[in-house]
Amino acid sequence: MHLLNPDAVHPIMLPDGSVFTETVQLKNAIDHPCMEIGAFSYFTHSGKVEETASILAPYLYPFSRDTIKIGKFVQIARGSFFITSSANHPMAGFSTYPFRSFNLAETGGYPDLPFKDTIIGNDVWLGHNVTVMPGVTIGDGAIIAAGSVVTRDIAPYAIAGGNPAGVIRMRFEPNIVSRLLEIAWWNWPAEEIEQHFEILERADLSELEQLA
Ligand SMILES: CC(C)(COP(=O)(O)OP(=O)(O)OC[C@H]1O[C@@H](n2cnc3c(N)ncnc32)[C@H](O)[C@@H]1OP(=O)(O)O)[C@@H](O)C(=O)NCCC(=O)NCCS
C-alpha cells in the first residue's frame, strides 16, 4: 500500500483523491538556514505554505545563531510553535527594550545574548497548541499533551503535559524503550516502513524484532 510520499508538500490525500492542503510536509516546505528537518515530519496550519517556517518558529530569523533540529516522522498539530533563543530581549539591564534591533547594521544586535539549540527527536507527537521553549530536547517517541508548555527536556517515549510540561507517564517499560531506540525504525527505507506499518501500529516487540 502506498502511504509515504517523500516529495509531497501536502502528504495527506482525502478519500475523494483531493489533497488536504493544510498539512505540510516540513522538509518540502521550509528552506531556512537555522532549521534542519527530517523526512515525513509534518505540521498542520491554516496559513500559506510559504509562511510555514514563520508560523512554526516565529522568532527564528535567517541570521539567528540558534537552530531547530526536527527528526523524522514528527507530527506537529495546529497551534504548536517553537520559541527560540532569538526571541529573547536583553534582561540584565534596566530596560528590556531591544533598542539595537532597530539598527542591526550599525549595532550588530545582541551577539552576547545566550542561545540554545532546540532538538526534537523522531516520531515525536506535539499535540494541539504546544509551545516548545528555547533549548529543549524532546526525545524520540515522546508525546506532548495539548496545550503544554515544554520548558525542560523530555525523555524518549515519555508522555508529558502541562505548564511547565512534566511527565504524565512513560509509554513503555525501560527495556522496551532502549530496544526501540536501538531499532530506530525511522531510519529504515521508506518502502520497508510502508510494508510493515501495521507492526509499528501495534506494540509487540517480538514482532518488531523479526524486522530489525
Ligand atoms: C497526552 C494525551 C495523549 C494523553 O492521553 P491519555 O493517555 O488518554 O490521557 P488521560 O486522559 O488518561 O490522562 C492521563 C493524565 O494526563 C493528564 N492530561 C491529559 N491531557 C493533558 C494535557 N493536555 N495537559 C496536561 N495534562 C493532561 C490528565 O489530567 C491525567 O492526569 P491524572 O492521571 O493526574 O488524572 C492526550 O491528553 C492529549 O493531549 N492528546 C493530544 C491530542 C491533540 O492535541 N491532537 C491534535 C491533533 S494531532
Structure commentary:
Helices cover 18% and strands 18% of the residues. The protein is of the alpha/beta class and 212 residues long. The chain has two domains: 23-171, UDP N-Acetylglucosamine Acyltransferase, domain 1 (3 Solenoid), CATH 2.160.10; 173-212, no CATH class. The strands form three sheets. Strands 1-3-5-8-11-13-14 form a seven-stranded mixed sheet. The protein has a four-stranded parallel sheet with strand order 2-4-7-10, with no helix packed on it. Strands 6-9-12 form a three-stranded parallel sheet, with no helix packed on it. Strand 13 (158-161) and strand 14 (166-170) form a beta hairpin. The two termini are 21 Å apart. 29% of the residues are buried. The chain binds coenzyme A (COA). Coenzyme A (COA) is lined by residues 77, 127-128, 143, 145-148, 159, 161-162, 168. Coenzyme A (COA) binds next to strand 13.
Computed over alpha carbons, the radius of gyration is 19 Å
Just name the CATH architecture of the largest domain.
3 Solenoid
Low-confidence stretches: none
Give the class-level CATH name of the largest domain: Mainly Beta
CATH homologous superfamily assignment of the largest domain: Hexapeptide repeat proteins
Helix content: 10-25%
The N- and C-terminal alpha carbons lie at a distance of 21 Å
Number of strands: 14
| SSE ordering | EHEEHEEEHEEEEEEEEHHHH
For the largest beta-sheet, the strand count, sense and barrel status come to: 7 strands, mixed
Strand content: 15-25%
List the ligand species.
coenzyme A
Q: Please tell me what the overall shape is.
A: globular
The overall average pLDDT, rounded, is: 97
- Which oligomerization state do the chains in this entry correspond to? single chain
The number of distinct structural domains comes to 2
Number of helices: 7
CATH topology of the largest domain: UDP N-Acetylglucosamine Acyltransferase, domain 1
User: Strands across the major sheet, in which order?
Assistant: 1-3-5-8-11-13-14
